[in-house]
Design brief:
mainly alpha, single chain, about 200 residues, 2 domains, Arc Repressor Mutant, subunit A, globular, Tetracycline Repressor, domain 2
């Protein structure tokens, strides 16, 4: 069961998105290293202390992935008879086919920035580990099991692992929407028990 966010949560989400939008624009214009938190705060018309209420570090303003909560809600909305992996595949399809071209271009630029800044790349790898907790949470909800159940965590790890393995060039080349087709193919293999050809 999903709930509609309240006015306060919606305002916070809008502020967070605005800060990130200004930050990414400044990073594009003058470079990541040359852009300060003070400059981002000024562009977003907030104080530096307000910036840090939304983002603990400058890295976090880039690494915030607005699609994660949308994907989790989309998984929750899938029919209960779907297996966890089938629900995840359906949710990914539902979300990514609705992304407008301009929004996708902004996401591609964000991923390109992560790819080219070493400290962001390192933090993104840690985010993949944290992603296991996120996926485990929604799998556990659907299965009626605790999120620390070993089978739940193993499945969540498999989902994150095959998704990463599907895009081996993700940290070396530009992000492309077609990559999500490869992720779906990899998840289909996981759903089928990872059979090897031959």
């Amino acid at each position: 069961m999903t709930t509609t966010p309240g006015l306060r949560e919606r305002k916070k989400a809008k502020t967070r998105a605005a800060i990130q939008r200004h930050a990414l624009r400044l990073f594009q214009e003058q470079g990541y290293a040359a852009t300060t938190v003070d400059q981002i705060a000024e562009a977003a018309e907030i104080s530096p202390s307000t910036f840090f209420r939304y983002f603990p570090t400058k890295e976090d303003v880039v690494l915030l992935d607005s699609y994660d909560p949308i994907l989790i809600e989309a998984v929750r909305a899938q029919p209960p008879e779907l297996s966890p992996v089938a629900a995840i595949r359906a949710a990914i399809g539902d979300v990514f086919k609705r992304i407008p071209a301009d929004e996708w271009e902004a996401e591609r630029e964000r991923q390109e920035l992560i790819r080219t800044v070493p400290e962001l790349r390192a933090r993104q790898m840690w985010q993949y580990v944290q992603g296991i907790d996120l996926v485990a949470g929604v799998i556990a909800e659907r299965a009626g099991l605790p999120a620390d159940d070993l089978a739940v965590r193993a499945m969540a790890g498999a989902v994150v692992g095959v998704s990463m393995a599907a895009i081996p060039h993700a940290l070396e080349s530009s992000h492309d929407l077609a990559d999500y087709g490869r992720v779906d193919d990899a998840l289909a293999l996981l759903e089928a028990g990872l059979p090897l050809p031959g």
